[in-house]
Predict the structure of Cysteine desulfurase.
Amino acid sequence: QQEHSWDAIRAQFPILQQTVHGKPLVYLDSAATAQKPQCVIDAESQFYSTINAGVHRGAHELAARSTVAFEQARERIAKFIGASWQEGEEEVVVTAGATAGLNLLATAFGYASLGRGGSAATRFALHEGDEIVVSEAEHHSVLLPMQELAARTGATLRWIPVTQDGRIDVTRAHEVITARTRIVAVTYVTNVTGSITDVAPIVQAAHQVGAVVILDACQAAPHLALDMHALDVDFAAFSAHKMYGPTGVGFLYGKRELLEALPAATFGGSMVELAWLDKPAQYMAPPARFEAGTQPIAQVVASGVAAEFLDHIGFAAIEQHEHALTERLLQLDSIPGVRILGPTENTQRIGTVAFEVEGVHPHDVGQFVDAQGVAIRVGHHCAQPIHRHFGVFASNRASVGVYNTLSDIDALVDAVSGVRAFFKA
Ligand code: PMP
């Protein structure tokens, strides 16, 4: 295994070299969005200063170069997640982010339910009495598109509950997934408890009844090696900005044969073979069918560089480094009056830890630690049902990335240790 200098990795993130409120910045909010290494920042700016042009059209040299860079980035992302990339077999669709990818699916399934997309799309059609299964731990960007899809089609939304410590309870998958289930949409890693879902039994139960599996891979992409073919999920969505890439861009994985059968969800330029005034248009094959309009080209190119950055460090090293950070982060649990919402053992989890400080509102906790230079997230983290499970509306959340150090965690633990005395809780 390659030896890494984590200091050298951290030094690649210019934003971290600053002070806030006179204290060195300790960034522990990577689950919201990760900071960007210089190589990603440079890739975006170099694209604009050297080859900026529209892709897939135009006979000029810059258009040719930007098309190559765009498609190479798609290939890099496909390899990063264990998907196909060969021309005509692409399995990666560019989106505006995970939320956009999940909405794309809900919209496309909704169109299929209206009979759009021809006979191939009937496999995605939902009818009264059909069931869509999510989990109690879902981010609203999974829950709400699926809830809306259910409302539009007359399907029923069901959910796999979480265990007491906030893991998706896969032992319940077989009872929640029934012969009526058409879609199962779950997260790989939760953005609240940091727990890693054992995806295999869910995929097995879903496929047994012919349901399609949608994986929210947002919080997994920066922390775990992804292999879509090995996971055997049907679709997966993630955002570049959580994996050290740019904002405004994400990717939707789909098994090739499913992408080919899926109806278009947004309509416009660059996704159509033939368009007429007096008869229906003929749409292009995937991925173009799902990429109407000018794409975030520079951001896609820089996302490829972000994937390369992660691959270069290697997930074995990343997991080891972050495991050590998580071990120390879990010490939060031993501070009097602090309760971790989620597993307190350091297995099958990443370094995202939600916690509650008894008697102190999360916004007060957030401001108090911010005054010490420590950035954490407070609120419901767009996952209200799992907060309800823990009996709270909001929480504090610290989350690590490749650039964090043990002293970052110590700074947080120190700051949190002072909260209750300060607020006389
Ligand atoms: N799912 C999970 C688990 C997330 O953490 C997030 C981002 N908070 C999303 C989906 C949505 O990602 P985005 O806001 O980048 O579309």
Observations:
- The chain has a mean pLDDT of 97.
- The two ends are 47 Å apart (CA to CA).
- The CA atoms of residues 147 and 157 lie 6 Å apart.
- The first strand starts at residue 19 and ends at 20.
